[in-house]
Write a structure and sequence with these properties.
By secondary structure, the protein is of the alpha/beta class. It folds into 2 domains: 15-109, Nucleotidyltransferase, domain 5 (2-Layer Sandwich); 112-219, 2-Layer Sandwich (Nucleotidyltransferase, domain 5), CATH 3.30.420.40. The protein has 6 helices and 12 strands. Strands 3-2-1-4-7 form a 5-stranded mixed beta sheet, with helices on both faces. The protein has a 5-stranded mixed beta sheet with strand order 10-9-8-11-12, sandwiched between helices. A two-stranded antiparallel sheet has the order 5-6. Helix 3 packs across helix 6. The longest helix has 27 residues, at 162-188. Mean pLDDT is 93; it is low at 1-8.
């Protein structure tokens, strides 16, 4: 009788992606789960965020976690407090609090990774503020373009963020978006630009060389952080 060797298959870990934004926190798992979300806001701390999403996570099974954070990240932790949320984020130990391995990246970078299709890609996120990131031949690089000067004493974020949309109306805001995109494109020379974020839907047309992003790609970015071995973050 010939014995066949048993083969042990290593299962892919189930990944929980947490997308932290100035108005909502969204979660989804990689095992076919559906998006769930809660409201955030200017008083939400890191601990309060975890408390608020705890009911959403109670019935989910996951092995590892990816977090997209709306601010600069260093050494897998938030490096500075966010502009549009409360305090208590910088240096917060998510891995200890969640009891799982965690990768933390800038939120725009997480959506950029999920949107990436090769070459030199620039991602711009139109939301509460202005998120930005680049992926250059699989090397993922967060950017902090929002607070660079634009015109008349305004920053890029002052011109294209949520407050500008409410203050100036869609027509003027769209003009500012086109202008900001052209300035950044001229400086960074990407092959293509993905415009995402919650307010991309306010644009009927896109600037040249731009693609419309899908906010659900942030979850895919979180999954790729653990799955894509060619990615350098």
């Amino acid at each position: 009788m010939t014995k066949t060797k048993s083969r042990t298959e290593v299962a892919q870990p189930v990944i929980l992606s947490i997308d932290v934004g100035g108005s909502h926190v969204k979660v989804m798992t990689s095992d076919g789960g559906t998006e769930q979300k809660i409201e955030s806001g200017p008083s939400m701390s890191a601990g309060a965020m975890l408390d608020a999403i705890a009911p959403l996570l109670a019935d989910l099974n996951y092995d590892v976690v990816s977090i997209g954070y709306p601010g600069p990240v260093r050494n897998n932790r938030a490096f500075a407090e966010p502009v549009n949320l409360g305090s208590g984020w910088a240096g917060f130990d998510f891995e200890h609090s969640l009891g799982k391995p965690v990768k933390v990246v800038n939120d725009a970078l997480m959506q950029a990774i999920g949107s990436y299709d090769g070459g030199r890609m620039l991602f711009l996120g139109l939301g509460t503020g202005l998120g930005s990131a680049m992926v250059l031949d699989n090397v993922a690089q967060p950017l902090e373009l929002a607070h660079l000067p634009h015109k008349k004493g305004r920053t890029f974020e002052d011109s294209v963020g949520e407050a500008s949309l409410k203050k100036r109306g869609k027509k003027k805001w769209r003009g500012h978006v086109f202008d900001v995109v052209e300035q950044i494109k001229a400086a960074l020379q990407p092959d293509y630009i993905v415009i995402g974020g919650g307010n991309v839907d306010k644009l009927d047309e896109l600037p040249a060389a731009c693609q419309r992003g899908d906010n659900t790609r942030a979850f895919e970015g979180g999954f790729r952080l653990w799955r894509d071995t060619s990615l350098i973050v």
